[in-house]
Predict the 3D structure of the following.
Amino acid sequence: MRTRPLKVALLGCGVVGSEVARIMTTHADDLTARIGAPVELAGVAVRRPSKVRAGIDPELVTTDATALVKRGDIDVVVEVIGGIEPARTLITTAFEHGASVVSANKALIAQDGAALHAAAEQQGRDLYYEAAVAGAIPLIRPLRESLAGDKVNRVLGIVNGTTNFILDKMDTTGAGYQEALDEATALGYAEADPTADVEGFDAAAKAAILAGIAFHTRVRLDDVYREGMTEVTAADFASAKRMGCTIKLLAICERAADGGSVTARVHPAMIPLSHPLASVREAYNAVFVEAEAAGQLMFYGPGAGGAPTASAVLGDLVAVCRNKLGEATGPGDSAYTQLPVGSMGEVVTRYHISLDVADKPGVLAQVATVFAEHGVSIDTVRQTVKDGEASLVVVTHRAPDAALSGTVEALRNLDTVRGVASIMRVEGE
Ligand code: NDP
Ligand code: HSE
């Protein structure tokens, strides 16, 4: 057992960072035993130094994060500031000054993961980010290490706690969108700018990271098709219920059937109540991984929040410290396949479409003809009539997304279609 401590610099001491510091202190003896050396919190960089931070020695607090990572005696930098800058420069500076890095920053890893991995490799350092995807759930390491001998074909799940919390509250308690978002923010689940959550940017960043690791290829944030959940309404939930479904914001990464390309997308979708994802409540996340030999694996657990996320950070910290002591580095980037990333139009899916139409003879036939002209097969149609106006709900069979969106466009142009009330994809069947 080495007695000289490994020194850790903590960049950020907010929802996640404060829990990282707390666990480092309260579990110090166990961490020492598991790593083979003590770990010492050597400095804590924040924006507001005068803020009272329970359990943190004020002497350790600094606003000069750059000086902290440049000290030269830091073994591991834990970056839990978030955002692109200054996090990116701090991480590369840390590599240059001898430190490995643990980060929870999905926005940065999704945008600059390749360059950061290259910088880490060049300096012989580690870059770990288990906490960046799905909070406490071990997902990056199983994909990167445990499934390294298998071929992953699909990753599908709920990867954003805030939006799952909001959708769950809207569905089960009838809460309004804003009320549920405020509660998620107060609980520490939301990003500094919650637009990242509700507009699907956070889930898209996680999808890019997952797809890249799962398919050993490069998937950029811009490659991920993204729709947020701000337009999901109580009427959508009522419609979903009538179909025996609920609504979740899903991230879906798939290898094409011919294996020659991949797709990644984030959007709200109806899923059957019988599907395991339907029972994922509050800020929990759940991810299915389908691999050729392993079959279907499900990962489930808290997807956001200070302590759950700190658990993933601490797991990485232990791994990186062990690597340091062994004068080794862990697995790095593995994007050797260079598969093209397909567009949303190529994705095969199903639509649930609500139309407001005129209640007169021939309308249903007209609508059905538009579907047929676009090669889209109808699964079910339900019509309700009130005051001379009819509402049609059409659920399709699986078809390319381009054909489905072309159908909707053509429906909008029919005189007898007063409006397209909602469109939602149906998944999980
Ligand atoms: P917070 O906003 O709660 O904390 C951010 C911390 O960074 C604060 O301590 C803040 O200082 C500090 N900070 C901000 N800017 C600077 C700067 N320029 N220099 C030094 N310190 C700075 O964020 P979270 O803890 O929620 O999130 C941190 C990271 O973890 C993000 O990347 C987020 O995406 C990720 N994450 C968060 C999860 C969650 O559930 N919250 C879950 C998974 C990942 P001060 O305290 O003075 O304001
Ligand atoms: N804002 C993120 C979420 C935090 O709600 O999932 C966890 O990554």
Remarks:
- The chain has three domains: 6-135+306-325, 140-302, 345-426.
- The pocket of L-homoserine (ligand 2) is lined by residues 135, 160-162, 189-191, 197, 202, 303-304 (CB under 6 Å).
- The mean pLDDT is 97.
- The longest helix spans residues 306-325.
